[in-house]
Amino acid sequence: MLSVENLKVVYRGVILALDGVSLEVREGEAVALLGPNGAGKSSLVRALAGLLPKFEGRVLDGHICFLGQDTTHLDPVRLSQMGLTAVLEGRPLFRYLTPLENLVAAGHRLSPRELKEGMDEVFARFPRLFERRHEQAGYLSGGEQQMLLLGMALLTRPRLLVVDEPSLGLAPKLVEEVMQTLNALRHEKGLSLLLVEQNARAALAIVDRVYVLERGRVVFEGDAKAAMEDQDVMEFYLGKEEVGFRQARRYRRRKRWV
User: Residue ranges of the ABC transporter domain (predicted)?
Assistant: First the structure.
């Protein structure tokens, strides 16, 4: 369904964010893209969604293909029409509009009947949104805003859903709820899912395969089980407690300041 080949992305012509990234997402598959801050995860999401120009970025080399078509330089509207929907980090809602109005905006391409059916489905899936449907979206909790974004994404009728850092800033219970929702949507709707996350443990619970990104390059590729069994991944990306990255970092930090 999605193929990325040797993608290089630069900002302002000089800052290299992605350096030859290749990955694929197959039909009906859930794939996690893991990595620390600054690894290039959000840059990849922007490239997939056609949003790089809005951030003074561009594709320097490589190709993105979606449903067999080269989409490297397509605009976000065309990509959405093809069925690629990206839920960006930071929860970019219309904060001064209500959840009801946000959903109407997201489903603007639907007929009135399709929009009503879609909104009924969203409110049935997220009852809390129905209760707060007439309040300003900016006053919703982080978890409620994330649910609203997923509801808006559903109204675009996606075939591939790219979700960037859905657990960011959420309590552990809400993280689990969001991941369960993504997993349910994938199976019930037959979606393909690219999940971009720092919370590797939460992501690995619902995906089939994993890519790990570091400094703009893919440093690991494998299925979820292989990622859990790989010592480097466990230590440096999942924070394994016995010999993990957190302990090593604390040790180095003390040595640096002594």
Answer: 2-240
Q: Helix or strand or coil: residue 84?
A: strand
Q: What is the pLDDT at residue 127? A: 87
CA distance 64 to 140: 35
Q: Which residues contact 156 (CB under 8 A, 6 or more apart)?
A: 80, 85, 106, 107, 109
Check residue 236 and give its pLDDT: 64
Query: Residue 106 — φ and ψ, nearest 5°?
Result: -65, -30
Burial state string for 204-230 with b = 16 or more CB within 10 A and e = fewer than 16: bebbbbbbbbbebebebeeebeebbeb
- Hunting for tokens 């974004």 — which residue is that? 149
Tokens of 220: 């690991």
Q: Tell me which amino acid residue 248 is.
A: A
Q: What is the CA 152 to chain-centroid distance, rounded?
A: 14
Name the E strands within the chain. Answer: 2-11, 15-25, 30-34, 57-66, 69-70, 84-87, 160-164, 192-197, 209-214, 217-223
pLDDT of residue 31: 93
Q: List all residues 6 or more positions away from 258 whose beta carbon is below 8 Å from its beta carbon.
A: none
Return the exposure string of 174-193: e unless at least 16 CB atoms fall within 10 Å of the residue's CB, then b: bbeebbebbbebbeeeebbb
pLDDT digits (tens, 9 = 90+) for 34-91: 888 888 888 999 999 999 999 898 998 999 999 989 999 998 889 988 999 988 877 7
Residues 49 and 162 sit within 8 Å (Cβ to Cβ)? yes
Query: Is 103 or 166 the better-scoring residue by pLDDT?
Result: 103
90 against 123, higher pLDDT: 123
**CA gap 86, 160 in Å, rounded:** 8
- Residue corresponding to tokens 């009801």: 100
